[in-house]
Amino acid sequence: MVSAIFIIAAGLGAGFLIGLLREDQKGAAFTVALAALGFMAWVSVSWFVALASGTAAPQDIITAGTQPPFAINLRMGLAEAGLLSVITLTGLLSLVYMAPALRALGRRALAVLVILVMALSGLVLTRDIFNLFVFFELVVIATGGLVLLSDDKRAVAAGFKYLVVSQIVGILLLIGIIFVYHANGSLNIDDIAAQPMGFTGAGLALFLLLIALVVELKPFPANGWALDIYEAAHPGVSALVSAASATAALYAADKLFAAAGPDWLPLATVLGLVSFLGANLLGLAQRNDRRLLGYSSIGQIGLVLVVVGQRDILGDAYLYVAGGILFTHAVAKAGLYWISGLVPGRDLADWAVLRTNPVLLFAFAGFIAMLLGLPPFAGFYAKWDLAHALAGADRLPVLGLVLLGALIEAGYLFRWFGFALKRPNPVAFPGFSTTGFAVVLAALAGGWGLGFVWGAGSVHGNLLLAAPLLFALAFLVLEPLPAWAKNLLAIAGLLGWVGFRAPGYDPLHLVFALVMLAGGAVILLASFAVKGERFGFYPSAMVMYAGLALLIDAQTSFQFFAAWELLTIGSYFLILRGKESEPHALSYILFSLGGAFAILAGFALASGGLQPFALDNLAAIAEAGLPLAPWVFLLLAIGFLTKTASVGFHIWLPGAHAEAETDVSPMVSGILLKAGLFGLWLLLMHMGRQSLFGVDLTYLLVWIGALSAFIGAVLAIFQEDAKRLLAYSSISQMGYALFGLALMNHLGWLLALMFVINHYVYKSMLFLAIGGVKERTHTKLMYKMGGLITIMPFTFVSVLVGIIAMSGVPPLSGFGGRWVFYNAIMSSEMRLPVVLIFMSGPIAFLYLFRLIHTIFLGQLKDEHRKLKEASGWLLAPQMIFVAFLIGFAILPGMVLQRVDAYIGGHFGSTALAWSGRSITSEFGYWNPVAIMIVIGVIFVIVLALLVAMNRNAQKVKQFNIVFSAERPFKPQTTHFAWNFFAPYRKALGFLEAPHVTRFWGGITDSLHASADFTRRIYTGNGQTYAAQVIVFVVAVYLVVLGGVS
Amino acid sequence: MSFEWVQIAYAALTVFIVINYGLIMTAVVQKIGARVGGRYGIPVWQNYIDLVKNIALRSKISHGVMFYLGPVFRLTGGIGLLLFVPTIYGSVMHQNFAFAGDLILALYFVFFGTLGMALGAGESGHPHAAIGVSRGLAQVTAAELPLALAVFAISLQYQTLSITEIVAAQQGGLFNWTLFTNPIATLAAMFALVGTMMRAPFDVVVAPQEIPIGPPTEYHSAYLALMQTNRVLFPVAKTVIYMNLFFGGASNWGEFAVKVFAIYMVSVLVGVVHPRFRVEQSIRFFLKWGLPVGILAILVV
Amino acid sequence: MTLALLATSGFAAAMLIAALVAVVTRNTAVAVLSAGLVSLFASVLFLFLAAPDVAMTEAAIGSGLTTFLFFFVLGRIRREGSDEH
Amino acid sequence: MHLVAMAAGFALILMGLFAALTHRNILRMIVGFTLANTGVHVVLVSVGYMPGRAAPILDDAVPVAEAAARIIDPVPQALVLTAIVIGLGITALMLAYAYRLFRARGSLDIADYTELKW
Amino acid sequence: MNTRFSIRHAAVLGLLALLGLAFWTLLAGYTPDAELNRTAAYYAENTARETGAQNIVTAIIVTYRGLDTLGEVTVLFLTAAIVALVLGQSKAPRGGTGSGFLPSGELLTTGTRMLLPIILLFGAYVALNGHLTPGGGFQGGAILASGMLLMLLADPARRFGHRLIARVESVSGLAYVAIGVLGVALAGGFLDNRILPLGEFGAILSAGAIPLIYALVGLKVGAEFSSMLESLEETEDS
User: Fold this and answer.
1) Mean pLDDT of E121-142
2) CATH class of domain segment(s) D2-51+72-112
């Protein structure tokens, strides 16, 4: 192994060597810089590999032939090697990326860059606090110099502000250092660690040292200077500052916090939290991309500082957690800054130019996912472990705040991604530079590589080795194929996986697997209708399906949560594909992530920090009657309820489902919502009834279910947009299912299961049908349609069957659900919520009737006369569903009998007796075959009667009616469709008042307002920034030490 | 209970009796109404005349498949409702096809005809039809709510969903009727009865003055004949359910005739003394008066 | 000892007075010169504190080079400022 | 003696910071920072001082054998030397920036350079 | 400039008073050591033996904390480079030369010619004797640079070689790093001065590589200062 001292020697040597060259030998200078950084990176990476694989031991490097503390020493351990790898590689890539700018500025700039990387490496390696100071000043000066690379005229002012603040930091550092030395007799960090200092005297010196290093981390709110640098500097420099400098500075702070001892850790925690939350909050108000990234950087570093503050509880996992977050952040942030250099405009919406290059768009998405700690990236494993450690040590407020901050960050990052995907592309774009593009790709590869490494190091197994996810990711490579080929492959994959896994599942899991995966394959049939490559669809969809497949497979809480996140991400990208779906996709992902964080917190709490935590263990917690059990229940339930869009968390659903593409709507409605039910099912199965403050939480769930069923239905009848109507109906239907589950009896669960199956079938069918209509008419507004029955008879049939099934009218399968429902509530003690359910049944009939009436009946519009039936590929799955609905109506026992027995095993009861074709419960009976036959026979007889009387009837032309003593000729005047249920609006319109939307809107508005207000502390005046730094230091000083010394 | 072929004949007999009973009863009711109003009124066989006349008329007009099928759905719904409920308690002949399903089947099958009717009327393309459907559906959701609650209440009371068992539980004297054992539920159910009989004050759905006759506007001749048949059959079928659930059922056709007539008259009597509600007014009415009673019913069981 | 203390105090006081001048004066050139003077007094102080190396450095760099740097920049700014206006 | 020097050093730091935070003229801010830096140097040196001892030079007056008992702590002095040079570097850099800013805008008022904010 | 005592002044004063409170705490809690602490004691006892230098401060700077010094030199290198970058980018108007605050009179020119050799010599002396007496590379370098300064003042139009300064700066820097690396190869570690014999204690050619390093530092620092001064002086960079 090459000693790490050569990293420093090479950096310095190269710097001086470049100085020796003539100004016109730019090529040679560049080569020297490249060689030096390449060498440094090679040494670092080879150390990292050797240390990580255990083939080398950590090395202490002494200088001057004298042992520490009498001479400066350096240390190369695993953490150092990792950090150096990140720093030097970032430096190397930045060199390549900034080559044109560097060349323009001359060889000196190259020297500055090399020395900056050297100094950052020194900052990481050194074990001497004064040496730390020297390297720190080198970093400051080099950064100040590199700021000049920017085309932005304001960069000079930013550099000056930076120097001003650095002066203050330097002063504090020096005073801190000398008094620490006085107290300790040593400048060596390890010696300081050996002699813990109290809060007086030397403690104050230590405080000055620590706070100076913290200020260097750009903590909110003393960080205006840093933001100006981020905004104005060359993006390559910002990438360096954000990825390499922040990383090194953080490690410097970490070394000293480690030395200072556990007493000081709360300081890191609190300052980190303030920074994380504050910076992310202010990020909400940003429109400039680089400044936004700056806020995000500050936030992320704050988060790592929080992790630093938890080193006492993280133990061995400390490096894994801190490294996971820090490295992922470095890679992602560098990548984003590099992309920002390729984007000509500075407004967030200007990133729409990325659409011209799908690979960059993919990179953008990847970096965002990395920043947010989504699977399969390293940050995910780290956040998971962090959450568990925090929960295990009862640091729940910290956990809560961290998750809150992450959610806010997700808000602005995903909003941004939405801009990139959906905003108009304002400029004719010349194309991206090849080197810049290559550098971004390198960062992306690095991020995925980190994800793999962290996965390999995880006790939970590597997500990137999970077959479904690999299969989904393979579609990224297959993107150039035509859509039909990918579709075929996707269907084969889904069916193959179900076939492969199904034999091992119990009936409950089997039903969900069939609905989610085999059901997904059926819906995918409709995707054959789309021509071309259909870029981005298959990776997104397959990630969602991979998540679902893994969700059903999950044995441990980790597997479950990872799968949950995967399906959330996949579905987000899927929803975002819709034309007008930008805001809705955003609210979807925010609610989903909020829910996911609740789930994370719930699992962390449940496990008490012990991992891996099998899902079955939830039962043990419930049985033990621990006081935390109801809280676990509550958190998990909230997480699942956001996914089922239960009332209160429902506002994302209508837009998200309505604006999605034709074949996406059934996926996200028919399939995705079931993930929430699946979660709830597991939760209730394992934890049963839980009470909090004397309130039975399942009772609460019953009410939420009933309210969702009612409100969803009421809102649905007021919709003019057909897909929105269906979307609200989903809220209502999920309410029924939730209601059934929460009844906590055998029949209730059977009811929920019937809703899982039925809702999948008829909602998928209806969405496909309405989607087909929309593709022909190019509108979703029902009053603009009408009379389409003659043009789209097959679609009409599927809608007809769909609404009969859904409204529960015999003889189709929906009735079975209603019958089970009555039997279930009969054996339950809960009566009041039933009222709401009773009411929502007929109301559902209203909106369903409206759906079929205003679209297919009434007067055909002139502009629709020449339309054709929907594509055969859209109809194919619908006809399958029709057949299934009729089959399921006649033979429900095919599916239900086994599940019934399974549920019976759980409750220890047999609620239904299956004799022949008849089903008998404690209270009543139901013979689906008989019903079908009786109705069929009567229908045929009456029809025959009519035909006998009226066999010559011929279809007359449109408008063969008399209306107001006129024969109308304009369909618009006679199509009674808009505001169809006007009386209802008059009577119950108050229910339409968007209280929930207003509530969440109020929260986001106040967040934005406070962000916009708070960020005005960054006046742009360097002097004010300097004063803020001192205020920050003094304030923390007074709080931390005020009472002691 | 299982199926035997002879049941088809019995069922046909039930349908025949009920249709005739309905034709006469509705005419009688109209006649009484006319007499109360000081008019002479129609002859009691007027319904037969109308029916025969409409059957005899031949139409060559159809607005489309759903239009054609609408009356079929409608009448199927009426007959089916009748046949899924035992008409005469204790009579093997008139158990009909109750073995196919219980009370829940009957409750939900009500919508079958409504749906078909609405669809057919919708295809006619006449705005009055659509307006009538809109009003009717809107009103019925609110009106049915008290019934649903009342049904829930008495199924809890009798711990069964089987109509036969509910009737059985009411045998053995006047005071075993649900009317007396559970007057609140009965009251709630009666709200629903008056609300769904398409009589004043809840008849804005068919409002003859403003939207000729509402949903069936475009129907004529044989279509209308089927619907007329249903219009006499369906109220009776529905009243039978009320009779079975709340008024002790009927153990013979005489009792049947009296009880059905009496229950039917309730809605008639309410109708003659009240002006017509607009739809939103009736929705509010049912939510304000019917709903609390229904809730009370399920709470006190 | 007391003599040394007295001298130290005296130089410290002189240093602070020079610093005060540097802070309150309206004239930038005077401020720069006073700052140089502060360094000079400080270097004397270092001698009293038995730090001859530091004293030399402070004198040469702090009071010498730094002051010159200031004046170079000040000069350029003055000249160019007057060019422009 | 060292306390006097140290107090003077601290006072100098505060005065320098006061100047840096109140003068809007960029050059005056830089002057303030050099004052503060000088103050820091004074504090550093005074920390190493031990009454009655000699400078850490092993000449005839201080033989090697007695050094430990005769000399003062050399470490702070070594640190100050480094700090002085680094301070000069930063000062030079700030001056260069000041000049550059002046060239761009013709103003030395720090409050004129606030385009980057919020 | 506004010297009126404003609210801002009062706020800053209050803020600094609070900061002063922290400083006061440090001051009040400060008690000088009675004995040298272990680090200082080590140096007092072992410097002579290990490095052969009389001036312990020099020994610490060049050897024990040589990495600091290397960094420090690099700071100046960077500063010089960046100052050149900063000023190189801003195109000053042509024609104007000199710093413009001092007239370059005859007297100055003559004086400079006489003084310059002495100054340079003195600088070299200070730098080379750093291990024996107070002084060393930094001070020597500063003195060298002041010689250059005088030259600049005396004859502002004169261009002394940029290339020369840059070469001196870089070569001495490279040599410094090379000596450091030699320490790894030949002695106990990076920047170990014992790659050369320690020699006789107190002699000018003693203390191993210390005089060599300090000479290099002196050259480098002198070149860097000169470069900075020159950059600031010149109206237009290449």
Assistant:
1) 83
2) mainly alpha
